[in-house]
Fold this sequence. Notes:
By secondary structure, the protein is of the alpha/beta class. The protein folds into two domains: 2-141, Response regulator (Rossmann fold); 145-198, no CATH class. The chain has helices at 2-18, 45-63, 81-93, 106-118, 145-159, 183-190, 195-198; strands at residues 34-39, 68-72, 98-101, 123-126, 139-141. Helix 1 crosses helix 2 and helix 3 (81-93) runs parallel beside helix 4 (106-118).
Amino acid sequence: MFRKRMLSLTALLLALSLLPFGAAAQEARWEEPIVIGWTPPDITGVFKTATDFFEASAADANENGFDVTIISQSPATHVAFADQVAIIEDYIQREVDVIAISPIEVEVIKPVLEKANEAGIPVIIVNLLEPIEGVEIASYIGFDNNMAARVTAYAVVDYFGGPGVLGEGEMVELESPDQYLDIEFWEELYAELEDEDKGGHRRPWRHH
């Protein structure tokens, strides 16, 4: 699910890049290079994962005839507000086609977002769904915590004896070491099991 969402995100970025901004736009815009500037708050955890999928999605687009480049820059720390502003200003100066941002602090970046608006560069906000007043945002991309909770629930069942890859229950052979254990993986795995089989064997609870 997460992989599909990131692929959808890049598809949206590409679609925005194809829009005819300005009178000089060409009909065959998709044949020209498309540069996406991405700036997360840092390069750890979920933002590292998001960056990986940006790059993977661009590679997939390039295999299908596009010429997409992802420029990824992050501040030195997740509290380096000025660094993120400087990165966005750099993207504007470089005239990238789209700017994707996961803001450290919304109010701090508002002035530079106005500059991006003035330059005609679409802005995508990642990991934030609440509208930012006073600036034009092309799209907001958030994370589906409900779906994440469902995946986590399956992983807990797996750990306590259900089929899967974590616990002492039936071990499932994965297609590859890089296979994504998304909601579709778990639903397909558990779809045909009887209720008594879904929990596998139960580990005894230990009381301290």
